[in-house]
Amino acid sequence: MTRWTLSIPDDTDLAVRSFLARRGGKKGDLSKFATEAMRREMLRQTICDLQARNADLNEHDAEELAQEAVTWARATRP
Fold first, then answer.
1. Considering its fold, how many domains does the chain have in total?
2. Residue 3, in any domain of the structure
3. Is 2 contained in some domain?
4. How confident is the model at residue 50 (pLDDT cuts 50, 70, 90)?
5. Quick check: is 64 in a domain?
């Protein structure tokens, strides 16, 4: 486990802690919440990057690439 020191605006801190409290938050929930939020944001940005990179790909070519990836993944699975 790594410990971070972050600077968060007071209003954001209050909003997040209030949100977690309304859901019956316990010790450690703030760290879990932050971890999940960062993972979701990294996934969102990755998806946006992929969509931008593949914006000129037509549907047929995209389907072919997806099928190749699925075939490869199934062949290399133990």
1. 1
2. no
3. no
4. very high
5. yes
Handedness of CA 50, 54, 60, 62 (dihedral sign): negative
Length of the chain equals 78
Alpha-carbon gap, residue 58 to 15, rounded angstroms: 43
By C-alpha distance, which of 21, 28, 27, 40 is closest to 1?
28
In 1-78, alpha helices (H): 10-22, 29-53, 59-76
Considering the entire predicted model, what is its pTM?
A: 0.71
Residue 50 token pair: 């992929």
Domain-embedded: residue 22: yes
Amino acid at 18: S
Q: Is the pLDDT of residue 14 over 80?
A: yes
